[in-house]
């Protein structure tokens, strides 16, 4: 039997009728049409599906859409402001933090969560913060560099009084 | 894969959750953090007819110290244990273990009650609960940890019985939990715990059998003055681990001895 679910996705309120077994990731991709959140495994291990629910990074393949009732969900599509990329998106671009790009939305959302908890992480803290995300291409070195670069730019932007959401540099 | 269809209700109190479980019958299950249950449902290894979502139950979300005990509500998430000053002061080994369960995303949702109820052989908290003589308190009764982990994925919980809290003794002396694994976020291939309580050592092992193991032979050897290295030789006494994808039975016994020695040495250091 379908149930109503009402939640906010990237700032817009939505209400849909869904089956309880619909996973949040399928809801985002197939119902809300936001295909930036990827599915990389069947075992809750790869992190490609990472989104923020009420500010916390979660694997959207391991949560039913009905559980997101009244939650604020943020996906990769919600990060940029117009043409202005979020500092993490820009840093992945600048530092070759991706190759095929399949894992990238998950890494970036996990990175956004990491920097919200720890704005100035060491390399080891970045590695631990991203342990729930797997990449088959880059070898991780550039991913860590990207997060470090974003942290520095976001820190500098904050220091200079520039709003972080407005692009970072 | 897509899980099989099920009915879904939210509970806002323990009473209501128990009533819903009675109404839905034997094939209904509790949904807590979902980080053991949903992966099983996605593989269709589990096909409950109904899920009772206990996440909205506020009365199961607390960490307190009372009467010399640390009381942790069933819905406390790994991330809360990891960061809680109360846990760090009263049972630091629990915060350290929580820091190594899964990854950030898993820790944001998975709950201590879920780990206990699921009783996975590789679960980390059950080993601590066992060696510390913790109690698992439900809406019906109090279970001593030593009577709770009966077999792999098997506890005495009845189908309408909810884990409500886990009660640990306070222990902030020397301690160490070592988790041996291939990748950072993996489950333990073998885990070893050493905790000093009232001057004596408590030693336990994870994933060397269907349930957590308390290494009384090692504890006794230490009590009679053996060195950590000599005592740890007893860590594999009587063990009969099953081989799995990552380790043979012999290798697990080897790990039990090596990790036990390291845990005692590092706890003492
Ligand atoms: C990638 C990954 C890595 C992981 N690594 C580890 C690890 O290293 N160590 C580790 O210990 N765990 C690990 N886990 C498992 C994780 O800790 C789970 O959160 C935990 O095992 C189950 O807790 P949950 O709250 O998610 O429970 P759920 O998945 O919701 O439930 C699990 C079972 O317990 C029952 N249940 C849940 N809560 C209650 C309750 N209060 N009363 C009665 N029954 C209840 C459910 O009905 C179900 O049968 C990992 C999981 C993943 C996905
Ligand atoms: S799709 Fe792999 S963890 Fe969610
Ligand atoms: S860039 Fe290809 S999987 Fe990460």
Report what the structure shows.
The complex is a heterodimer of chains A (169) and B (269). With 169 residues, chain A is of the alpha+beta class. Chain A has five helices and five strands. Chain A folds into two domains: 3-78, Ubiquitin-like (UB roll) (Roll), CATH 3.10.20; 87-158, DNA polymerase, domain 1, CATH 1.10.150. The longest helix of chain A has 19 residues, at 141-159. Mean pLDDT of chain A is 93; it is low at 161-169. Chain B has three domains: 7-53, 2-Layer Sandwich (Uridine Diphospho-n-acetylenolpyruvylglucosamine Reductase, domain 2), CATH 3.30.43.10; 58-169, Uridine Diphospho-n-acetylenolpyruvylglucosamine Reductase, domain 3, CATH 3.30.465.10; 175-268, CO dehydrogenase flavoprotein, C-terminal domain (Enolase-like, domain 1, 2-Layer Sandwich). Chain B has helices at 14-24, 37-42, 78-83, 85-90, 92-98, 104-109, 112-118, 125-131, 145-148, 216-223, 228-232, 249-268; strands spanning 7-10, 28-31, 50-53, 63-66, 69-73, 135-138, 142-144, 163-169, 175-180, 190-197, 200-206, 213-214. In chain B, the strands form three sheets. Chain B has a five-stranded antiparallel β-sheet with strand order 4-5-8-6-7. A four-stranded antiparallel β-sheet of chain B has the order 9-10-11-12, sandwiched between helices. Chain B starts with 6 loop residues before the first strand and ends with a helix. The complex binds flavin-adenine dinucleotide (FAD) and FE2/S2 (inorganic) cluster (2 copies). One FE2/S2 (inorganic) cluster binds next to loops of chain A.
């Amino acid at each position: 039997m379908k149930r109503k679910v009402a939640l906010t996705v990237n700032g817009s309120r939505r209400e849909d009728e869904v089956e309880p077994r619909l996973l949040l990731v399928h809801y985002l991709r197939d119902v809300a049409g936001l295909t930036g959140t990827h599915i990389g495994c069947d075992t809750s291990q790869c992190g490609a599906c990472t989104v923020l629910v009420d500010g916390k990074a979660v694997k959207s393949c391991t949560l039913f859409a009905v559980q997101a009732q009244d939650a604020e969900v943020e996906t990769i599509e919600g990060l940029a402001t117009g043409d202005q990329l979020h500092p993490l998106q820009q840093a992945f671009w600048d530092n070759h933090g991706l190759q095929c790009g399949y894992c990238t939305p998950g890494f970036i959302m996990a990175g956004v969560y990491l920097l919200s908890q720890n704005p100035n992480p060491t390399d080891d803290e970045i590695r631990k913060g991203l342990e729930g995300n797997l990449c088959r291409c880059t070898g991780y070195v550039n991913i860590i560099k990207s997060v470090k670069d974003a942290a520095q730019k976001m820190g500098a932007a904050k220091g200079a009084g520039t709003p972080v959401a407005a692009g970072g540099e | 894969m897509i899980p099989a269809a099920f009915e879904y209700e939210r509970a806002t109190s323990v009473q209501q959750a128990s009533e819903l479980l009675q109404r839905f019958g034997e094939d209904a299950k509790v949904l807590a953090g979902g980080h053991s249950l949903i992966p099983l449902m996605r593989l269709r290894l589990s096909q409950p007819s109904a899920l009772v979502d206990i996440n909205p139950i506020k009365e199961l979300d607390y960490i307190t110290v009372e009467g010399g005990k640390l009381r942790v509500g069933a819905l406390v998430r790994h991330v809360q244990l990891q960061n809680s000053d109360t846990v760090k002061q009263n049972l630091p080994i629990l915060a350290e273990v929580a820091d190594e369960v899964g990854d950030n995303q898993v820790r944001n949702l998975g709950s201590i009650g879920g780990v206990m109820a699921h009783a996975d052989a590789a679960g980390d908290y059950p080993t601590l609960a066992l060696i510390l003589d913790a109690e698992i308190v439900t809406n019906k009764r109090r279970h001593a940890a030593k009577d709770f982990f009966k077999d792999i994925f098997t506890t005495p919980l009845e189908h309408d019985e909810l884990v409500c809290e886990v009660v640990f003794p306070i222990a902030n002396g020397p301690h160490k939990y070592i988790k041996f694994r291939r990748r950072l976020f993996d489950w333990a291939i073998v885990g070893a715990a050493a905790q000093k309580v009232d001057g004596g050592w408590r030693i336990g092992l994870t994933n060397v059998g269907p349930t957590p193991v308390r290494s009384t032979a090692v504890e006794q050897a230490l009590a009679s003055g053996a060195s950590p290295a000599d005592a740890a030789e007893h860590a594999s006494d009587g063990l009969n681990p099953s081989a799995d994808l990552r380790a043979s039975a012999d290798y697990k016994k080897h790990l039990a001895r090596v990790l036990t020695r390291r845990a005692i040495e590092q706890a003492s250091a």
